[in-house]
């Protein structure tokens, strides 16, 4: 899988026709930190901030919200990758036709599917609720996480 090295950004018709080209890597360390990842992380942080401000409306404690995040984010990443691998299985076979686990876990090479992330968050939040929290807050937690996710998506 080839990652773009330059990302042309164009604004046709906005103050003339101008474009800028920047590297898709913000910081060149190891595999690199990409601008897309920075924007997603920023969206998640702003969504967390917003959810923290809204939590009292739904009767959610700060610890419960953080627990939902700590279970939900890894669940979403694993679900997004699993969904991608299942639907693009041919990309993860070696030259002999055998499934390559090393290719399947290499998320830094790209390949996450939002549908898998959304599907996997449900068991992730349920795991946070079942980890010792009250079951009554799952509905409120789902509502606030949905709103926070919409905010993160709009920001990103």
Order of strands, widest sheet = 1-2
Discrete helix count = 5
Gap between N and C termini, in Å?
A: 23 Å
- Global shape: flat
Q: Give the rounded overall mean pLDDT.
A: 77
User: The biggest beta sheet, please?
Assistant: 2 strands, antiparallel
Q: Which structural class matches the secondary elements?
A: mainly alpha
Q: How helix-rich are the residues, as a percent range?
A: 55-70%
Order of secondary-structure elements:
EEEEHHHHH
The whole-angstrom Rg is 19 Å
Low-confidence stretches: none
Number of strands: 4
DSSP strand content: 5-15%
What labels would you give this structure?
156 residues; mainly alpha; two-stranded antiparallel sheet; 5 helices; 4 strands; 11% strand
Architecture blueprint of SSEs:
Layout: E1 6-11, E2 18-23, E3 25-27, E4 33-34, H1 35-58, H2 62-87, H3 101-104, H4 114-130, H5 137-155
Antiparallel strand pairs: 1-2, 3-4
Helix pairs in contact: 1-5, 2-4, 4-5
Give an account of the 3D structure.
The protein is mostly helical and 156 residues long. Helices cover 58% and strands 11% of the residues. The chain is built from 5 helices and 4 strands, in the order ββββααααα. A two-stranded antiparallel ribbon has the order 1-2. The radius of gyration is 19 Å and the shape is flat. The relative contact order is 0.16.
């Amino acid at each position: 899988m080839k990652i773009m090295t330059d990302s042309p950004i164009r604004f046709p018709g906005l103050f003339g026709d101008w474009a800028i080209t920047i590297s898709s890597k913000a910081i060149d360390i190891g595999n690199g930190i990409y601008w897309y990842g920075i924007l997603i992380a920023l969206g998640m942080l702003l969504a967390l901030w917003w959810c923290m401000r809204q939590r009292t409306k739904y009767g959610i404690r700060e610890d419960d919200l953080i627990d939902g995040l700590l279970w939900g984010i890894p669940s979403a990443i694993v679900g997004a990758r699993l969904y991608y691998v299942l639907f693009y299985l041919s990309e993860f076979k070696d030259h002999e036709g055998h499934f390559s686990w090393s290719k399947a876990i290499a998320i830094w090479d790209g390949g996450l599917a939002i549908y898998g992330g959304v599907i996997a968050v449900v068991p992730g939040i349920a795991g946070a609720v079942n980890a010792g929290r009250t079951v009554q807050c799952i509905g409120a937690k789902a509502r606030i996480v949905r709103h926070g996710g919409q905010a993160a998506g709009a920001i990103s």
